[in-house]
Specification:
The chain starts with a strand and ends in a 7-residue tail after the last strand. Helix 15 runs parallel beside helix 17 (563-571), helix 22 (678-688) crosses helix 23 and helix 22 (678-688) packs across helix 24 (710-719). The longest helix is centred in the C-terminal third of the chain and has 28 residues, at 919-946. It has a 5-stranded mixed β-sheet. A 5-stranded mixed β-sheet has the order 9-11-15-16-10. It has a 5-stranded mixed β-sheet with strand order 25-24-23-26-27. The chain has 6 domains: 4-104, Cathepsin D, subunit A, domain 1; 156-390, HIV Type 1 Reverse Transcriptase, Chain A, domain 1 (Roll); 468-584, Nucleotidyltransferase, domain 5, CATH 3.30.420; 618-727, Endonuclease III, domain 1 (Orthogonal Bundle); 748-936, Nucleotidyltransferase, domain 5 (2-Layer Sandwich), CATH 3.30.420; 958-1018, SH3 type barrels (Roll). It contains 31 helices and 41 strands. With 1025 residues, the chain is of the alpha+beta class.
Length: 1025
Amino acid sequence: MHTCVSQEWVEKNIARLHIASQLPVSKTHVVGAGGHKSPNIKNQLLIRMKILHAEFLINCLVVKGLIKPIIIGMQTLAQMKATIHIADGSLSFCDGDGKPFKVLYNSNNNECNDEHGPTNVTFIDVQSLNMSPVFKTTLSGEQWNRFHVLVNSFKGVFSDLPGRLRDFEYELRVSPQITNFKARHYPVPVHLRDRVRAEIERMQEIGVLEKCHSSFINPLRIVHKQDGSLRLCLDARNLNQYLLDEPEGPPGLDNVFAMFQGAQVFTSFDLTNSFWQVPLAKSSRKYTAFLFENQVFAFKVVPFGLKSSTSALLRALGDLFPLESATFCLRFVDEILIFSQSLEDHFHHIEFVLRMFSDNGLTIKLGKTQWLKAEVKFLGYILSGEGLKADPERVQAILEYECPKNLKQLRAFIGFINFYRRFQPNLASLVEPLTYLLKKGIRWVWTEEMQNSFEKIKQAFAEHVKLCLPVMNRTFYLSTDASGKSVAAHLYQIDEEGSPYPIAFVSRLLNEHERRYSISELELLAIHFGINKFRMWLQGTKFVVRTDHRALEHLQTSVLNSPRLSRLILSLQEFNYKIEYVPGNQNEIADCLSRFTSRLSNDPPDPGIPIFIIQDSPEIQEIFENFSNLQRSDSRLRYIRERVGKGGIILRSYRLQEEILYHLVRERWKIEIPSSVVDKLILYVHNKFLHSGVKKTLHILKESFTFKSLRKRTRALIKSCNICQRVKGGTYLHAPALSVPSDSPRNLVAIDFYGPLPETPNRFKFIIVVLDIATKFVRLYPVIKASGAAVLDCLLLDYMPRYGQIRKVMVDNGTQFTSALWRSKLRIANIECTHIAIRHPSANPAERYMKSLGQYMRVALFHRPHDQWHLMLPHIEECFNDSYHTSTQAIPSELFLGRRVEREWDSYFPVNIDRILTPELLSQEIAAATGEARRQSQLRARQEDNIHKSFTEFGEGDLVWIRARNISSPSARIFHKFLPQYIGPYIILRTFGNGSYLLGTRSNNIVKGVYNVTHLKKYHPPVTA
């Protein structure tokens, strides 16, 4: 008759209880229904109890050892005016206003009776569920009560363990050509075997796995989840080749989204381990077998990883839901969305779906359920009563685009927005001020008008950009790209007119560990990132992945030796996709997003190669920003600035512009370098261009700067450069090499191979060197094999589409360039072919670049593993093409591309060089360059005839370098050609009359040995300021 509460429960929850008062009790016992007598009761409590929205004051006896936290007595039930309904296991109450309401106290009739079914939730507090704040504050007491009864009536549906669909089994449709296979299994690490064994036992207990006998053995992969647990995955690549395509696919969203008009309330469900809830027919289980500790296990349910897994789930759910449910319920793979026009209808619709799941043994993740939402995130959209709108996170990358700082970034931005110009009718007028900088020969000057135009474009793009709804019967295209610090993906489709329209785009920064990935691993990571971001559209349909990394084309059929590549491709095997290669200039959106996202990072520059990553140096940036103050601190320049600024004696050869002092040198205004930073500026250019020589360094500096003894200082600094002395060889005598005549770009292109080199993670072993004879413009292509087919791919798929038609190529007499394939492809492409003299490789102009290429490689890889040489090629190309060529006395990229090279200091100082490369001027410069090249060639030939070989003599105490005997070590990732050519320095201890010298260490004169002068080179100590 009395209400009792457990003493242990009260002590544990004393802080949470609302106790109105506490009174002592003497000589009191309670007797249970079984006749058991309780210990003496010493206290009774007056507790304020809240049931849904109603509050009651209940007098409770505190009983020690009570089997339940609280047992409500008949007196309390009478006080509440309660009625017990045995049929549905509920209680009816009346609140303080006399309004009745109902709660559930028992739901055994709704429990899951499957032998492997989930453990039921004892009670669900509906007020703690993920609900819209609007409905939380507006629901009436009766609505709260109804919602509570509804959810708890089907509490057996909510579980973290997968249910099992009744009266349905999925049978795999296998090709008749299937044969027994036993793929090589991956060894399980010893320290993980106990955990793997326990996970297999757990999967057996919940009915996911069983022991079997099968002749179809798939590899087992162990994946570490974020919470530290293990996931056992089936590497089903062999099996997927024999599975037939299923007709089931996700519904067409273009028609489905029209149903949302007028919907005011939404609820979404997420199935627990959705595929594991679909039983697999016994005849199909043998195909899913794997081996562990000499025992064969197979899946009793549809496993993750099969390309038909999505079709199996869709077919199973399709048999459950009647057609009329489509007016209020959308099923998209494992996500269920319920939408209604009123709350009353919504309760009915939720009950219909939950009853459907309960009757058929399915379970839902309670933590991922969204209840009674005014707007809900579903499939990347925000759904509300007002309609459909894009998720703001998907356009955030565009809205945060930084202002372009050079021509390359501007072209990337304009290419990005032009890709979506069909959604912006006024885009042409908005972008017009920016296109001025794209004209040939125009110097980079970012004006206020251009800044305003840039901001207007971003604002218009933010307000009017349209992320289209996908059409499910059209092919999806996923464009991906990876840069050194980020990955990006762009999902789109193509309409009837052949124009692409965007669906969504995403990008993210790489973490510290991911930035160490190889190129192939980064590009595959971008694909993995994009597919998982857009899995709601891509899962269950066939789509195309487009990447600018050709090596990934054969990823699904190649042997995977990299564990990281294996893990990434394994996680994508449930998707049905094809990888296509597209050149980088056609992959603008993903490329632009990945490059832009990397600029959002606040991480410091990569310290991997301090030799040439100087453009990110804060010190040089500070010099350029404070150049005016540095000129003032120089006594000589300060004197000149004062005379020019006061307007006294007119100095015609000097002028001040925006507080920067210029000096007129040979009819060109150049910036005066303060003596305090001249060494830093020389070394900056020298290091940036991979330790370029004196002439190239001087030419680059003299474009914009002047100093009274710049040549002398440059020669002294470079001569004493420690790295240059170690990696650069001495001067050798060669036969005269005359210039090959060519008078225009792409008129004659020389081609040669450099290699073999240490194999990179991408399996590259050779470099194809493509040299334009007229302009000396160089392209370097890493390839796997030195074949004619590889050269044809580079020429026909990249070089010619990017730069234009080639008239003639010059090659050697290797079999690659004499095959029928080579001749036929060149004939189709309208390219002539000429061969150099037999057994005379130096006649090929491209061959002459091999020494410089090796020198650049040694510098670039000075602090890097040698199998990463392919990462250095873009920078080496820049060193070849953006610095002065000694034979033409011109910059190759300017002659070949018809644009002036941008230097890092151009954005800091006013325009001081008028160099507009009009077509007429460009043709004149090319003619002058080719003439100069012929003159230099003839001059070198005469010098070779008159030169006399002589050797340097050294004296005791001199410091010298010793030529190194380098040996390759694949295990240490070392290649002998990329090692420094000299070691030391060592001191000469004694001289002999026959050109031999006794050498020793500098510190303690320990004898190194006797060396001939031909193996020695003079050491130049560092130059002091």
